[in-house]
Structure formats: C-alpha cells, structure tokens
Amino acid sequence: MGPGNTTTRTRRRAVPWALLGLWVALLAFVAPFASKLADVQHDRAVDYLPASADSTQVAKIQEQLPGGETTELVLVYHRDGGLTPADRTTAAQQVDQITAANRLTGTPQGVPSQDGTTLMYPVASTEPGIDEELRDEFVNDVRDVAHGGEGLSVEVGGPGALATDAAEVYNSLGGPLLYTTVGVVAILLILIYRSPLLWLVPLAVAGVANYLSMGVAYGLHSAFDTTISGQSTGIMTILVFGAGTDYALLLIARYREELRRIERPYDAMVTALRGCGPAVLASSGTVAAGLLCLLAADLNSSRGMGPMGTVGVLCALVAMLTLLPVLLVLLGRRVFWPLVPAFGSRPKERRSLFTAMGSSAGRRPLAVLAGGVVLLGALAMGVLNLPGTVKQEDSFVDKPDSVVAMQTLAAAYPARSTQPIAVITPTGRADETLAAVRDNQGVASAERGRSGDGWTEISVIAKAAPQSAGETATIKSLRSELKGSYLGGPSAEQLDLKETNSRDTKIVVPIVLASVLLILIVLLRSLVAPLLLVVAVVAVWGAALGIGGLVFGPVFGFEGTDPGLGLLSFVFLVALGVDYGIFLMHRMREESLSGADPVAAALTALRTTGGVIASAGLVLAATFAVLTNMGLVQLVELGFVIAVGVLLDTFLVRTYLVTSASVALGRKVWWPGALSKEPAAGSRELPEPVTETVGMR
User: Fold this and answer.
1) Most buried of 252, 356, 518, 678, CB within 10 angstroms?
2) Which of 319, 243, 248, 241 is nearest to 287 (CA)?
3) Quick check: 74 and 420 in contact, CB under 8 A?
4) pTM tops 0.90
C-alpha cells in the first residue's frame, strides 16, 4: 500500500471524527444561550403591534406612567332570569375581597344592564406592571375569588384576562408543539425509510439543529434586540424540523444512489454532497431570502418572524450538510438495514408513481397544463368566501372564560362599549383634549387618569359596541381631531393590525417575488424557468387561500380570518414552494447538461426527484399541520393554508404542471441560456432511465 493510499484512508477516518468533535464543542458553547431563550420570549401587545402605530405608542407610554402598564379586567355577574338581591350582595362581597387583596387603581363600581340580568365591575391594577407572570398571577387570583353557582354565572374578562388566556396558548407552543412535531416527523420517516435505525439519524440531527437555533436566536436578540414571541419561536421550530428533514431526504436519497456506484461510504458521501449540495444551498438561500424580506414589514410580529425563521432554516442547513453526513459515514451502510444499498447493485426495477405521472405529462403536456391551471383558478375563487377580519373575542378555537365574558357583555350592554379606548395626550393639553373627547358624538364618557413624564392618560368609553363599525368610526374621528395625541386600547390595536398588514402586504410581496426570482435566475441561468417556478408558487398560494375560504367558516366555524394570514402564508409558500422547484429544475438541468433532450431531461428529473419531493412535501405539510392543533385561530389558519399549499405544490404543481410546462416549452425553458440552443447534430446522448430509490412509489 502506497503512502498516497495511507494518507487518503487516514483522512477518511479523521475528517468525520473531527467534524463530530466540532459539533460537540459548538453545542457546549451554545447550551447556556439556548436555555435562556424562554426568558426573553414575550407576548405583550407591543411585541405584535405595528412599530409606528398610535396603539403601539400608547402601550409604550403606559408602561412609563406611574405604576407601569395597567392590567384591566371586567368581572361579569349574570343570571338569565335577572339578578337577585343575593346575587348583587355576592358580587359586592367578592369585589371587596379582591380590592382588599390587591392594589387597584380606584374602587370598582358596578354597572348594571338595563334588563337587570347582568352586573359588571371594571377592575384595574398597575401592580403587575409589564411582568407577564405577575399579570397572569393577578388574573388567576381574581378568578379564584370571582365564582358563582346555583344559576349565577361569573366570568372574568377584559384585556388583561384575554392576554392571560392568549399567553397560555403561546406557552403551549414550547413543549407540546415540539413533541408533536417530533412525533409526526418520526412516523413519516419510519414509513418512508422502512428501517429501524435510519429514521433516527435525520430526526436526531434536526433536534440538534433546533437546539442550535435557540442559542443563535438568543444571541440575535441580545445583539440586535430582535423580537422573540411565542409565535415566532414556534414557527422557527417547525421550519427547523420541516425544512431540515427535506434537506436530509434529498441528501440521503443521493447518498443511497452513490453507495451503489462507489465502494467507500466517505467517497460516496463526498460525491452526494457535490451532486445535491448546490440545490440544497440554493433552496435554503431562497427560503432565507424570502423570510428576511419580512424585515420590511412594519408589524412587529411579522418583522420579528423574519430573522427567527431564517435562523431556523440556516441552522437546519448547516446541520444537514455537516453533522448528518458525518453520522451517516460513521454508521456505514448498515444504517440502511434491511434495505442496504450494496456496492455494484442496482435498485429493484419497478414502475413508480412518478414514472406514470411523467408519462401522462409527456404525452399530453398542454392538456395537463390547461387542466391544472383551470383547477387552481377555480380553487382560488374560494378567496371570495373568506370571512372578514377576526375579532378579538373570536380569536380562540375553544372559548376561554375571557371570551365568554365579552360575549355576555355584548348581549347585555348592546347600546354601549364595555372596552375602554386609551388616549395618551401631553399633560399641558390634557384639559383641552378631555373636552374635545367628550364633545365627540361617538363618545359615551371620558375620564382623566394617570399622569407622568409629560403625558396624561384618558379612558374613553364609546357608545358603539367593541370592534363594531360605529366604534371604528369613533376611533378614526378622534385620531383626526386629536393632533399630537395617541389612541390605543384593544379595539384601536385591532384596527392598526388590519391597516398595517394591508400596508405590509403591498411592500413585502413585491420584494419577496423579486428576491426569489433573482436567486432562481442566478441558479438556473435562465429567465423562463425562474418565471415558471414563481408563477407556479403564486398560483399555489392563491389556491390554498381559496381552499381556506371554503372551509374556515362552513367547516371550522371561524368567524373571521387573521389580518396577517395573506402575507405570512404568501411568504412561506413562495419561499418553501420554490424549494421543490429548485430540486426538480436543478436535476433537469443536470440531465440536460449530460446531453439529454428536453423531454427526456424533464421526465428523468421527475422520476429521480419525484419520490424525494413527495416525501419532503408530506413531512413539511405535516409539520405545519401541527399548528392546526393549537388554540388560536390565527395559528390554525396559517398552519392549514401552508399545509394545503405544500401538498398542492408537491402532488399537482411540481409533478404535473411544471413538468408538463417544461416538456411543452422544450429548450425554451432555459432561454436565454446556452441550454436553450439546439446542440450540433449527433451530439445528444440520452441517459439511461434512473429508477428512484426512496420516497413514494
């Protein structure tokens, strides 16, 4: 054995162990930071509101007023047949007990309904301040005291109770979301690989990537004060497992293919990385670029989700291109048992599902393309059936105590608002502002509140019901009249969310499309192929949103849609959908460069990548579908639309429509690149048919 061979064998042994050692050191380094991520996660109003909106300024100034942020509650006592004197006595006693046990801002006064069935007590305290744990403790203490019985119902509502109930849902995005995601991915990997060991490797690597992303996210927050919310943390986890598993499926499929041609696992892995590495890098880069476009959004929750999602995708990429290959090489061929790809063997010949799909697309490409376009267009019409903007009380899947309280109040006090509008005005103009507010036709009452740091708080009760057209008109009227003052509160926040999402959509969508298109042009060296992929993912988004419109109201019973659904689902579906287009078109380009004619290149690319794309699509759709089990309507809607969109993209658009369009366009799909030109006569060489080795058959 020569010195060259000895050196090569030494390198084959040393490199995997060295990389594994680096990963151990990296995890040891990020461990202290990853454990702190939960400490900087907040779900306050300012973490979700528009950065420049009136309601955001109100929330920030209220935190600086004496006592800090106010936690506002409403105790609702109700009896269907009318409250009895004993009921009123019970209510007064319980309110006195709450007042004695807590430091409240003023003495709560009961407000009876005209029909005598309901009595409400507004309760407010600055004692919790901005501490979410203290707020939840205060709300739960009040709920422990306020209870009914024998026909008397007692609920605790108001902004503070709603925030506590929402926080409970967001807290469930930690453990339960992670465990459910891991379980779903594990089941799918077992079904895909049919191996007792192989499925564990990518799943373990995804878990490592998720831990790494937590440490990096904490570092990002420390360095740039990035917003960390329950929503963005949950989405990051889903992206790590969903996108990371996709990259693993592609790499393992190529590695299995190379193990049949190359004897040593190390060399087979190097070849596999060279073959699929560019596609994985390009796809992850596209997703990261699309998510980073959310930095242009004015909505804090959307802008914070951009870097968090990017961190998740890039950590998954690094882990799947370094740690996963190391583990696979160290475990050797036996990791594939019982379906071990022996050196020199050929995969079992069988006619795959994607061979049949490719054949139909190849025979009648225009008919298949036209049928698919008509179907997607018909589904997109469902957008017209989307319910209006979801109200705050309708944002929970299962109605908590705070929502029941709001509904009781809405029925018992139809002629007045039960939710204050907060006005923050310069202290020097407080009297003038108060007089202007009381003169407004839409205002029922207004009272001066706290003052500090040059600002004074005014609590306003509108005549119209919360989040009604009348109250919205009052808020807009006050904002136009009160120059130099800010209007906030729950209703104003919902109005700002809706208007800012509309503004963000107009800005972010073109940036996402331009970024993705530019990356695809550089990767594929063509204009037509990138345009084809971008049009395809936009069509998928429209169809998925349309399906949401057909089921959200009639099937799920949702009363509205989240204002950010359109923008967030667009960003995720475009960025993630292009992933599969890159896998397919990159392989098609490889086949074309090897001399295959356009039809053969398209069909071979579908045969070789179809199974991987299908498997990856199922995993990604399943991970986002986990969100449909969460307790907030906005998360259920987002998870549903993205899951449906990924499935449409996987089994209809990528397999049928993109393939049939590529066949119909022929070499023009690569225009104006060199591949769009006809080769010299006699230079074509058709590749041998390749049978897929993994995925759906």
Assistant:
1) 252
2) 243
3) no
4) no
Give the max Cα distance, the chain: 102
Per the CB < 8 A criterion, the answer to whether 465 and 410 are in contact is yes
- Give me the residue label for tokens 């794309």: 613
Q: What is the DSSP string of 562-591?
A: -TTHHHHHHHHHHHHHHHHHHHHHHHHHHH
Could you tell me if 162 and 490 are in contact, meaning their C-beta atoms sit under 8 angstroms apart? yes
Return the pLDDT at 486.
Answer: 95
The single-letter code of the amino acid at 516 is: V
Q: How far apart are CA 467 and CA 490, in angstroms?
A: 9
CA–CA dist 317, 309 (Å, integer)? 12
One-character DSSP codes across 196-247? TTTTHHHHHHHHHHHHHHHHHHHHHHHHH-----HHHHHHHHHHHHHHHHHH
Token code pair at residue 258: 């190379």
Buried b (16+ CB within 10 A) or exposed e, 261-278: ebeebbbbbbbbbebbbe
Q: In a 3-state reduction of DSSP, which class is residue 310?
A: helix
Render pLDDT for 85-118 as a digit per residue (tens, 0 to 9): 999 999 999 999 999 999 888 889 998 998 999 9
C-alpha–C-alpha distance, residues 21 and 636, integer Å: 41
- Whether 577 and 537 have beta carbons less than 8 Å apart is answered as yes
pLDDT of amino acid 309: 94
395 vs 351, residue with greater confidence:
395
- 312-316, 496-500, 601-605: least confident range: 601-605
How many H-runs (helices) and E-runs (strands) does the chain carry? Answer: 22, 8
Q: For 251, how many CA atoms within 13 A lie in the half-sphere containing its CB? A: 31
Beta-bridge mates of residue 120: 76, 111
Rounded-to-integer distance, Cα 395 and Cα 378, Å: 29
Q: Name, in order, each residue with C-beta under 8 angstroms of 201's C-beta and a sequence gap of 6 or more.
A: 324, 327, 328, 331, 335
- Check residues 403 and 678 and name the one with the higher pLDDT: 403
Angular region, 417: left φ>0, alpha ψ -120 to 50, beta rest: beta
End-to-end, the C-alpha distance of the chain in Å comes to 44
Rounded Cα gap, residues 197 and 335, in angstroms: 6
Q: What tokens appear for 256 in the block? A: 């299995």
Residue-wise pLDDT tens digits, 344-376: 887 765 555 556 665 666 678 888 889 989 999
64: which residues sit within 8 A by CB, 6+ positions away?
452, 453, 455
Here the tokens at position 475 are: 């808020």
Please report which helix (H) or strand (E) contains residue 251, including its range: helix 230-259
Joined tokens for residue 637:
């809607």
Distance in angstroms (rounded) separating the CA atoms of residues 320 and 314? 10
- Residue in this structure with the two tokens 């040059």, named with its chain if needed: 454
Contacts of 44 (CB under 8 A, 6+ apart): 59, 130, 132, 163
Rg (CA), the chain: 29
Helix (H) or strand (E) holding 121: strand 118-125
Contacts of 614 (CB under 8 A, 6+ apart): 353, 354, 650, 651, 655, 695, 696
Residue given tokens 């998870």 in the structure block: 639
Residue 322's identity, in one-letter code, is T
Burial of 551 (0-12, 13-18, 19+ CB in 10 A): middle
Which sign, positive or negative, has the C-alpha torsion 563, 566, 568, 569? positive
